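Researcher: Re-running this chain for the archive, since the previous output was lost when a drive failed. Same request as before.
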Amino acid sequence: MNAMTNDMPLSTPLDIRRGVTDAADVAFPLRWGILGAGNISAQWVWALHACEGATLTAVAAREIDPAEEFARQYGVATAYGDYRAMVAADDVDIVYIGTINPLHKEHTLLAIEAGKHVLCEKPLTETLSDAQEMYAAAEEKDVMMQDGMWTRFFPAVEHARAAIEAGTIGEVMLTQSDFFDPIYTIQAAPLAFGASAVPRAVMALGNRVGGAIVDYGDDKYAVLTFPPRNSELPEVTELVGTEGRITLERPAHCPTRISIRIPPPNGVPSQYRTRNAPAPLHYFEYPLPGSVAMARSSPNQHGFLYQAEAVHRCLAAGLRQCPQYDKEESLHSMNVLTEINKAKQAAANR
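Model: Regenerated structure tokens:
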């Protein structure tokens, strides 16, 4: 059951490709409680409506009125004006944390203490130590605590990971990624180099706009830039290897397209050694799921469904994390985020 299945398409979800879940278990029944009645929670609920095994049983806000309006508008059975009451409800199996970032830890621990599985919206929290505490609490209660880094569940990213693991572009030496929310760029580093890779140094500058270089040793680097939110940002992720290059096309934090450039047999991966002839381009497109009806969404948020279905499959199999973005990768990213924030603060104080 644990052997990697190599005859599947490269875009196959990693849990299925590894043989640890059953594709049919998207129908595994889970009763969802939504903690937070803001816009991100609304988008998540639209995706859950398309997940075969999901039932929307509850939503909670700080006050009852917005919870009741959310429940009415998005088809949720019960509204609560108290977070603690919702997570204690017998008809809630798993809680989606959609509150503001500084409250993620508090609300995740609240749900875990009540014995509920948790999917927490990214960024998981604000520091590595907080994330470690959250994972420890989940392990003690034997519940899932899944980082909400939905990027990793898109078929294009599944394809990229499979191609890296297969050695399609050789050894990855560099990743370049840009986005105004740093956590989306940071997750490209463990995708490129593996969660067990240990950063030797992190250099960062800027405040609302800036960038960082993460040195992984052996001439391996993650170059991350954080452009203004209101700008025509490139929003691509490049994975550069010794034998080729993978591009997660715009919008790279939720991509539907992937480009892979590899030289022909006996060729070399550099147009500067081939009289300016670039490596042949292999292009793949993965349309968004048509089953998700979503109004006023940010780019490609229909793709929340990919993560929702993986959560159902993994819990059906008795897993407590999804392999697409497990505890090790999540903590790797939280460590890099913590070090970037420290470096930016140190630079600002000089």
